[in-house]
Write a structure and sequence with these properties.
By secondary structure, the protein is an alpha+beta fold. The chain contains 15 helices and eight strands. It is globular.
Length: about 375
């Protein structure tokens, strides 16, 4: 009797010449409720013992049809849905939609509003990265990192609550500026957060960065080459850790980012440690931008250009993008001149970054997969729109 053939599950690809029997293939479901996945994501993994041979991500567990809903709403009504995608980049996602509307209708933005936008976005970048750092430490077993990260993140969260009344799915930006002016406490508290963040980053390094277990679990693990990073369309820290020198704020400046002096951190190896290191340095650079913005912040002036009852985009197509916490977030709107768009599409960073997961996880252990997933800093609603 001939040996039974290795039967692949739908979506898997046979390794040529392996000659494996079906009994030797072991399939593991990681998710859709697994502590290593940051949201409701299911990974079907083909294993050889504890070694990963192939991964097939299964999406759709929290699909809400956001972009389809956008075709039945005005652009302004659509705005709040984008902060439900990557809820840790809500301000930045909102900004992308605002920029597209402003480009379509020729809306200007007052000086004070531009500074508010940049400062709020950079504060959110730090807030998002602090959550990532805490969750990353916990994924590797360092529960204290989670407590430290959320402790320091809370000061930014409280400031956002004071500015716009929300702590997570914030909807503060509007075409032409912001929904309301910042309170008098905004600049003093931002200065305090900058100084606190600098001290926190030193503390984070002492607590986790140099830890021998953390080093062994990240260095040489999950290497994404520069060529592969580009071919998979990765952006943000995932791409920059592989040496891809691209940051929308630098390469295609929007708002007033061209006024600030800051560096774009890059890695050389593209492994888990490089992705970790780039994100840590990004927090320091965000503080650098905030220091300059605080020093230049206009003492007065309007915080929004004249508000319109409805934003009826002229016929045509409009594109804008921003550097969100996880990479490039883009908005593409097609209008036929009516109040509702014909098509609205968002390009989210987590979706493209996830596509490289199978490529860089093969040959590593299940425990390494948890580390790789954590350094990708995936927010699943950003994938599952």
């Amino acid at each position: 009797m001939s040996s039974p053939q290795f039967i692949l599950q739908p979506g898997f690809h046979a390794a040529p010449g392996t000659g494996k029997r079906e009994a030797e293939a072991y399939y593991l479901n990681m998710g859709p409720q697994h502590p290593s996945t940051h949201g409701v994501l299911r990974l079907v993994i083909r294993l050889d013992g504890e070694t990963v041979e192939e991964i097939v991500p299964h999406l759709g567990y929290i699909h809400r049809g956001i972009e389809k809903m956008g075709e039945n709403q005005t652009p302004l009504q659509y705005l709040h849905l984008t902060d439900r995608m990557d809820y840790l980049s809500s301000h930045m996602n909102n900004l992308s939609v605002c920029l597209a509307i402003e480009k379509a209708m020729g809306i200007g933005v007052p000086e004070r509003a531009e500074y508010i936008r940049v400062m709020v976005c950079e504060l959110e970048r730090i807030q998002s990265h602090m959550l990532w750092w805490g969750v990353f430490g916990m994924d590797l077993g360092a529960i204290s990192a989670f407590l430290y990260g959320f402790r320091d993140r809370e000061f930014i969260t409280m400031l956002f609550e004071e500015v716009c009344g929300a702590r997570l799915t914030m909807n503060y930006f509007r075409p032409g500026g912001v929904n309301a002016d910042v309170p008098e406490s905004f600049i003093p508290k931002t200065k305090e957060i900058i100084e606190r963040t600098k001290k926190s980053l030193d503390e984070f390094d002492r607590l986790l960065t140099g830890n021998v277990i953390m080093q062994e679990r990240t260095r040489g693990i999950g290497i994404l080459t520069k060529e592969k990073a580009i071919s998979y369309g990765t952006t943000g820290a995932v791409a920059r850790a592989s040496g891809v020198n691209y940051d929308v704020r630098k390469n295609d400046p929007y708002s007033i980012y061209d006024r600030f002096d800051f560096d774009v951190p890059l890695g050389t190896t593209g492994d888990c440690f490089d992705r970790y290191d780039v994100k840590m340095k990004e927090m320091a650079q965000a503080c650098r931008i905030l220091e300059q913005a605080v020093a230049q912040f206009p003492a007065g002036g309007p915080w929004r250009s004249k508000e319109k009852i409805a934003y009826k985009l002229p016929a045509g197509s409009y594109f804008s993008w921003v550097e969100a916490a996880r990479g490039a977030f883009a908005t593409y709107i097609v209008s036929d001149g009516n109040i509702k768009p014909v098509r609205i599409k968002n390009r989210s960073p987590s979706f493209s970054n996830l596509s490289a997961l199978n490529e860089i996880s093969r040959g590593f252990k299940i425990a390494d997969l948890v580390t790789i997933m954590s350094t990708f800093d995936i927010v699943v609603p950003d994938i599952d729109r």
